[in-house]
Design brief:
Thrombin, subunit H; 6-stranded antiparallel barrel; 1 helix; globular
Length: 134
């Protein structure tokens, strides 16, 4: 019996993007914001994901490692984490990766993200229903 030599595996799909994020993120709503205290100062959270969080930067520097207390709008659950500023955008947003976070707190962030995604889907369906009635 003879075996054919297989060709080297080729990539079926490629993903090239200027998006620096490696995980999905959700954006808090104005009526249910995420509160965050970074080294004693409250900052405005822009988005959160399993791998990190972004906030409006006031005077923090690229590469800084900061302690953060994040209050999620799920029954005001608090999450403690150490964050590392990996990028500061031209608009002044500090994009951070979670450097140190325990598994329970990580799961709480996942739970918040799932609830937020479900709410967005409900809202989208609700809006589609209203559009078809008009």
């Amino acid at each position: 019996m003879f075996w054919k030599k297989s060709k080297p595996a080729e990539e079926l799909f490629t993903y090239e993007s200027c998006n620096f994020r490696s995980s999905y993120r959700v954006y808090p709503s104005e009526d249910n914001p995420i509160y965050m205290i970074v080294d004693g100062a409250e900052v405005e959270v822009v988005d959160i994901g399993a791998g990190g969080i972004s906030f409006v930067n006031s005077n923090y520097k690229l590469g800084e490692v900061l302690s953060a207390l994040i209050t999620l709008p799920i029954r005001d659950i608090q999450v403690e984490a150490e964050i590392n500023i990996v990028r500061i955008s031209d608009e002044g947003t500090a994009h951070c990766a979670f450097k140190k976070i325990n598994s329970e707190d990580s799961e709480l962030i996942h739970k918040y993200m799932l609830q937020k995604q479900k709410q967005e889907l409900r809202d989208k369906r609700k809006n589609k229903g209203l559009e078809t009635e008009e």
